C-alpha cells in the first residue's frame, strides 16, 4: 500500500445543497479531532477568483488553469468557518464565497471536467493523519472512493430551502423563501444531471433522510455508523 497519508481514514459526507453537510462534517471533525475538507469552498473560490480576474464562467481552459494554481490558503484562527479562515490571494473571503451568487457560479464551474480534474489532487492532499472528514458532492464516488465510511444526506428541497432561509435570516440577510426554493431546485438539477461527477450516492454509502431530523439526531446516527472505525481490532 501507499504512504501513511494515503492510509489515513476518511469519512465522506455527500449530499445536495442546504442539506446540512457542512454543519455535520464540522461537528464530526471537531469531535474526532480530524481534519476537515469543505470541497464546495474550493469550487466557490474558483468562481469568486474567476469573477475577480475577469475569466468568463464558460472558458473551461482558463478556469481549469486558474483552479490548478488557485491562490488559496486555509488558516486556523479568527473569522473561521469549518474551523479554518479562507484567504484568496491574501484576502479573507470566508463571507464573500457564501453568497447565493457565488454558489450559483460555483455550480457552473463545477460542471466543467477540466476544473474538477484540476482540483482533485488539491482535495486529496487534505487526507492526513489522524483522519479526514470530507464534505461535498462526489467525495465518496470520485475523490475518496476507498473511504471506509460514506454518508449520503438527503432532505426535501422545501426543508432545505427553509433551513437556508433560517440561516440567512440569522445572519441578517433578507431573502425570499420562494426564491431560495427555486435556486435550490435549479442547482439540484444542474448538480445531478451534469456528466462530470454528478451528484449520486456511492453504492456503498449510508443514506440518511434528514427531513424530519435535528442536527443532533443526524450527528448521533453518523457517529454510530463511524463507531466500528474505532473498535479495537483483535
Ligand atoms: O456545498 P456548496 O454549496 O458550497 O457547493 C457549491 C457548488 O459546488 C455546488 O453547486 C456544487 C459544487 N460542488 C461540487 O460539484 N462538488 C463538490 N465536491 C462540492 C461542491
Could you give the order of the helices and strands? HEHEHHEEEHHEHEHHEH
Provide the CATH topology.
Rossmann fold
Overall geometric form: globular
* Termini gap: 21 Å
Instruction: Give the biggest sheet.
Output: 5 strands, parallel
Q: Count every helix, treating DSSP H or I runs of 4 or more residues as helices.
A: 10
Q: Do you know the CATH architecture?
A: 3-Layer(aba) Sandwich
Name the average pLDDT. Answer: 90
Q: What would CATH call the homologous superfamily?
A: P-loop containing nucleotide triphosphate hydrolases
Name of the CATH first level = Alpha Beta
- Alpha-beta content class: alpha/beta
Q: What is the radius of gyration?
A: 17 Å
Small molecules bound in the structure, each named once = 2'-deoxycytidine-5'-monophosphate
Can you count the beta strands?
A: 8
Strand order across the largest sheet: 2-6-1-7-8
Strand content: 5-15%
Low-confidence stretches: 1-5
Query: How many structural domains in the coordinates?
Result: 1
Q: Percent helix among the residues?
A: 40-55%
Task: Give short descriptive properties of this protein.
234 residues; alpha/beta; Rossmann fold; five-stranded parallel β-sheet; 10 helices; globular; binds 2'-deoxycytidine-5'-monophosphate
Amino acid at each position: 500500500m501507499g504512504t501513511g497519508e494515503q492510509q489515513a481514514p476518511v469519512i465522506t459526507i455527500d449530499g445536495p445543497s442546504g442539506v446540512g453537510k457542512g454543519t455535520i462534517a464540522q461537528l464530526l471533525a471537531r469531535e474526532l479531532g480530524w481534519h476537515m475538507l469543505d470541497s464546495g469552498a474550493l469550487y466557490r473560490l474558483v468562481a469568486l477568483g474567476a469573477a475577480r480576474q475577469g475569466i468568463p464562467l464558460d472558458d473551461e481552459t482558463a478556469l481549469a488553469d486558474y483552479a490548478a494554481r488557485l491562490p488559496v490558503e486555509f488558516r486556523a484562527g479568527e473569522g473561521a468557518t469549518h474551523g479554518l479562515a479562507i484567504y484568496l490571494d491574501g484576502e479573507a473571503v470566508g463571507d464573500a464565497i457564501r453568497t447565493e451568487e457565488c454558489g450559483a457560479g460555483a455550480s457552473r464551474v463545477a460542471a466543467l471536467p477540466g476544473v474538477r480534474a484540476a482540483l482533485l489532487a488539491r482535495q486529496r492532499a487534505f487526507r492526513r493523519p489522524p483522519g479526514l472528514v470530507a464534505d461535498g458532492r462526489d467525495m465518496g464516488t470520485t475523490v475518496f472512493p476507498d473511504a471506509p465510511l460514506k454518508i449520503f444526506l438527503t432532505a426535501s428541497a422545501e426543508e432545505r430551502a427553509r433551513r437556508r432561509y433560517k440561516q440567512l435570516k440569522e445572519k441578517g440577510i433578507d431573502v425570499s423563501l420562494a426564491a431560495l426554493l427555486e435556486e435550490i431546485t435549479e442547482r439540484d438539477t444542474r448538480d445531478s444531471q451534469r456528466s462530470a461527477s454528478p451528484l449520486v450516492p456511492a453504492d456503498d454509502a449510508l443514506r440518511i433522510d434528514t427531513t424530519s431530523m435535528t442536527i443532533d439526531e443526524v450527528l448521533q446516527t453518523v457517529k454510530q455508523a463511524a463507531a466500528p472505525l474505532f473498535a479495537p481490532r483483535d
